[in-house]
Amino acid sequence: MDAAKPESDLLLRLLSATELRSRVIASNIANQNTPGYTREEVRFEELLRDAMRRGATADRVAEVDPRVVKDLTTPARQDGNNVSLELELNALRENRMLFETYTSLLDARGTLKKIALGAG
Description:
Blueprint (H helix, E strand, L loop, with lengths): L4 H26 L9 E4 L1 H9 L4 H5 L4 E4 L14 H35 L1
């Protein structure tokens, strides 16, 4: 079994979570003027971190899925909508940095594997 496979799978799942997060943020922005709309967030990295802290094996960590949850902590305006464009743009920037980091790590793993195969 390829020892790097669980790590590569995890990176792909992290990339997938950033894609989902981008869609959720776009939906929040699209609904910023919809009365009663409650913004949503994607929880994934913290769920992985919690699973690892509990000593989860690679198989158990692979069972952790991203969750789209309602944000009930951000104050709502008088119309019941709690979307803040500033908050969404910050979340979008953070998500892009995560995507770029995960992509770089995945690319580096591929490069290292090519070097190892070429050297062997």
